[in-house]
Each structure stands twice: as structure tokens, then as C-alpha cells.
Amino acid sequence: MVKGTPDTADGSRTGPSPASGARAAPRRPALARSLERWGAFARRRLRAGELGSLPVVVVLAIVWITFQSLDDSFLSPRNLSNLSVDIVGTGMIAVGIVFVLLLGELDLSVGSVSGLAAAVFAVLNVNNGVPEWLAVIVAVLAGTAAGAVQGYSFARTRVPAFVVTLAGLLTWNGLMLYVLGSSGTINLDANGLVAALTGYYFTQDAVAYAVAALAVALVFLVPYQDMRRRVAARMPHRSLRFVVARAAGLAVVAFAAAFVLNRFQGLPLALLIFLVVVAGLDTVLRRTRYGRQVYALGGGVEAARRASLGVTRVQTAVLAVSGTMAAIGGLFLASRITSVSQSSGTGVLLLNALAAAVIGGTSLFGGRGSTWSAVLGMLVIQSIASGMAITDTPAAVQFMITGGVLFAAVVIDALSRRSQEAYGRA
Amino acid sequence: MSAPPLLALHGVCKRYGAVEVLVDIDLEIRAGQVVALLGDNGAGKSTLVKVISGVAPADRGVIEWKGRQVHVRRPGDARELGIATVYQDLALCGNLDVVGNLFLGREIRRYGFLDEMEMERRTQRLLERLTRAVPELRAPVVSLSSGQRQTVAIARSLLGDPRLILLDEPTAALGLQQTTEVMDLVDELRDRGMGVLLISHNMGDVKALADRAAVLRLGRNNGFFDVNTASQEQIIASVTGATENAPRRHTHQEAAW
């Protein structure tokens, strides 16, 4: 969420003493006025190249409407619930990729790292009888280590990250095959912890509603407290109406989602974990010193270095985050099919995760984006896949459509970047 | 003997690969003094700024801060001493907003999280002092005009309450009114007892503002002047190399000041 501006032009903030000039203008219907204001707001944002998540929400709406009109089981509670679980594995990986994209770099190794982590877990737990919780920790740390090694090499040698991680793609995939040995496919314990990651649902209706209420409360209270502090300090601040409207908007979405999920099997544990991780990492990126450093590196490595940032440290940490998230995603993917095989983490997984981050609105040029784009992008990709499956469309068409959406997202990214720069020169 | 100079360089050398960019550079900056650093393109002015600011540490030579020998190996070292730099390319992060750029590397935190409000408040206060046209604080810097970016870069350098400020061609990209603003600011900084090293190609600015001028030519010292007594022709002749001053002689000249 982009911070508003100190003036009232975008409608999200009011100064300490709001100008009353608007009152003098001839009275028009309130709806027309607010529409006009939103139009001006959207145009300003468009010109400034800050479209954010607007395009992806539009695309998602188009996808959903299209498939619903082709087959009315698409928006059924069962399908939407499955969709919400299917996005989690690849989505976790995409969240890690967002961090790397913010640096303006690419991580091509995430697919292999996710497969490696799943293999490490399966071999430790199933073949060697290591307790599940310990095997999970070792598997995730393996991902962290793989990412940190790549990050450090990238930071020290200044070889572009996509080359370092291309080598990683091969290395970690080879290591996974080595770890799996001759066993080929390992079936996980169907009643175990990892299987429960995507298999457990909170069947009581109250849980989903409580989570929705908690989220709405947070989205209202945090900006509200900030607003009160700013009022007390006589600083420009968001208007109460904006804070309430945003929380109300989220409330509609959250409670509708809770209602739909409850009509199937309740809130999936996987979805809850995913949303908590995304919200947590979003807070890390926007509200902590580390996150600010990640964005700064995406805006200019040399500028960050001269501001005495520990460039090597931050770059290493970012790739380590990406490796960690890849490992977590790998465990969710293994959980979904309760098995690990030699094909884990291969195929279109990497491309889907990468596409999700970009489709969701994270810039390929670095410095712009948010972890929420992983959620939105994954929703688009998985919706297309699910809709294609329901309507019996061949996979070939699915690839082409997903490719088209990705291409559109990249074009929008490039155009908004250009318009932002042109806007700056004006 | 008066107080030691704020910053003194003795015999500083810097090479990039096989190229000797700076050879045996001497320089002194006192508190409350504006020293102009002059020289043709490629004379090593920007490199000298990077040496002092720790971006490109010196290979040899001594740097003294208030009479005490110090090592400036990283930008953080210079910042801790109280040396702030406005680079020629400004070194701003285009995607961050004005507040984010100002506080980059020294964010204010509250309960472990960034305190945006406090940072915004101090930014507002600082910018109001510097300029009449305060840019939009929450706009990404890439969307500001070059004059506004220059203001942001200068504001950032002043944030840590530095004792010495290095300005690398601060007015090169500015219009007339903004140039005046920057020049007034430099004047004010001197009055507050700060040391200023000013790189400029504009002899008018130098004559108007600087107390002393140090000339570099081909990476060596090529003369020190008292701007109030030396003629513009003398200084320009030194910049263009019409008068070659042997490097050894400057040490005496410097001491004579």
C-alpha cells in the first residue's frame, strides 16, 4: 500500500487544516463527485507509474467471470477451496522470488531448492526415521543454506544472480537426485505433520470468521493508531474515512471468503499459514530497517553502498530468504501429493513461481513490489489452470494463455516504469 | 599555533588499476571555511571526494581529522567522523521516497519498526529550512525534478549534523534561483562553523563564496590560492596548466598560510 501524499489531492489524506475551497464549488451529486475524485486519483497513479495491484485484480476478475460463464462449477465452494490450497506451495516460492526481484535480480534455483528440501525431508523422515519436526527444520535450513551460499557468491563475485542461481539450479537438482538415491519415489506418512499442512481444515465455522475479524481489526487499528499519532503531532495524515473505507473493503472480501470456505470444509490450514507468512514478510519489507535496505538496493546498489549499507550482507540475506521460502514451498507441494519423487521441483514450477511474482505486479527492474503480488499472481495462474481443467481444455492452451498473461504483465511493468521516469523529467 | 585544521590530507595517492589518479595530494580544510577544489575534467576532483568520503579509500597517504590521524576505509567511517558528502550523481535511490532517502542507513525506529512519522516530521522541518519549494515527501525521488533531487541530496548530507561537507558540483544541474539557494546555504553552513569543500566549474561562484581555492591538475596539486587576493586569471592559469607549480613547493606554501 503506497503512502498517500501530504496534500489532499489523492483523497487519502487531509492536512491539519483542510482547505474549504471545495465547499464553494457548485453542488453535484455525491456519487459523481467521488467517482470524479477516484478517476483523478487513478489517472495520477497511472501517470506516476504506480499501478500497483490494479491490473492483476482486473485480470483475475476477467478470468473468474470467463470460466464461471463457461462452467458454473468454477466458483463453487469446493473449487475455490481447492484453489486456495493449490496456490500455497508455488505461492510460498513466489514470495521468496519477490525478495530477489526487489533487488532487480532473478533466482532460477528455487525449483531445485524446493525439490531438494522435499527430498531431504522424505529421506530423513521416511527412510531414516528422524522425527518429523526435526526433519522439517533440517529441510528448511537446507534451503536457507543453499540460498545463502548463492547469495554470498553473487554478492562477492558480482556475477549476476541469475547466472549464479542457474548453476544452483543444476547443482541442487543433482544433489536432490543424489539424496533420493535409487529410491525413486518416497511416499510420505499420510497422517503426519507435513501431510496435514495441506490436508487439515478448521471445520468449525467460527475459526474462519474469527481470522477474518482479526485481519480486519488489524487493518483498521494499525493505520488508525498512526493517524491519531499524526493528528496529535499536527502532521499530515490519512482521513478517518479512508482508513474505515479500506478496512471495510477488506472486511467484505475476508468475510465473503470465510463464508465460501465454510460452505466446503472450512478454513484450510495451508491458506492460513500462507496468508500469515505473506503478511509477516510484507511487514518486514515495509516497516523494518532490513526491508528498507532491500528496496534501497533495488533502487541503486551504488547509492545504497554510499549510504553505508552492508550490501553483501543484505544481498546474501535476500537470497537466503528466497532459498528458505523455496524449501517451505517444496514441503507444501510434497504435502499436497504426499510423496516426493525425482521430478519434485522440476518442470514448470520455477516458471510459475516467477510468473506469479511478476503477474502480481512486482517489477523485474527492482525496487518496486510487495509480497502480496505473489498471492494475486498465483491466484491468476492457478485459476487459469483450474478453469482449464474444469472445462477440459488441453494443457497446451493453458500454457499459451498463462504465457500471454505473463507477457502482458511484463509489458505493463516496463510501461509503468517508463512513464514514471518521464513523469519525473516533466 | 592555532587549532588544527578540521581535515588535513598529506601525500594522498590513489590509483585505479595502472592509472595514477591522485599523486601526493595535500589539502587542508578549517572549520568555518569554504575551500574550492578546482581543476579541469579528469584532474581527480571527484576521486578526491570519494577518497575523503570513504567510497574509494586512499592507497597511501595520511588523513588527519582535527589533528589526529584517522583511517577512512568505508563510507560509514567518514559519516562517523562527521563528514557528509553530496555526490555529483547525487547517489539517491530513485524508488524510495524523499523521507526514505534522507534516512537511508540511519532510520529512526520505534518498537523495532520504522517510525515513518518522526522521520517525515524531521524531513519536513529540514527541507523547510533549505528551500522555499518543498517537494512532495512521499513521492518516489525518480519523479522529482533535478533541482528537487539536489535539494534532497543536500538535505540528506545535513541530517547527521556533520562538521565537514563535501559538495561535488552542487549547482551544475540547477537553474538560477536554485543555484542562489544552494549558494546561500553554503554561506550559512560556513557561518555555523562548518567546513565546506566545494567543487565547482563556475569561477563566479568560487569568487563569491570560497575563502581558499586548491587547484588539481592531472592528479597533482597545482597551487593554493587565497581567493580574496588572487586574481581570477591567476587561478584559471593554474587550472589550465599555464603555470606549472612543482608539487614539492606547495607544502611550504601550505605551511605559510
TrEMBL record, chain B:
InterPro entries: AAA+_ATPase, ABC_carbohydrate_import_ATPase, ABC_transporter-like_ATP-bd, P-loop_NTPase. The keyword Hydrolase does not apply. GO terms for molecular function: ATP binding; ATP hydrolysis activity. The lineage of its organism: Bacteria, Bacillati, Actinomycetota, Actinomycetes, Kitasatosporales. CDD domains: ABC_Carb_Monos_I (cd03216). It comes from the Bacteria. This is ABC transporter ATP-binding protein. Residues 7-243 form the ABC transporter domain. Keywords: ATP-binding, Nucleotide-binding. Pfam families: ABC_tran. The keyword Nucleus does not apply.
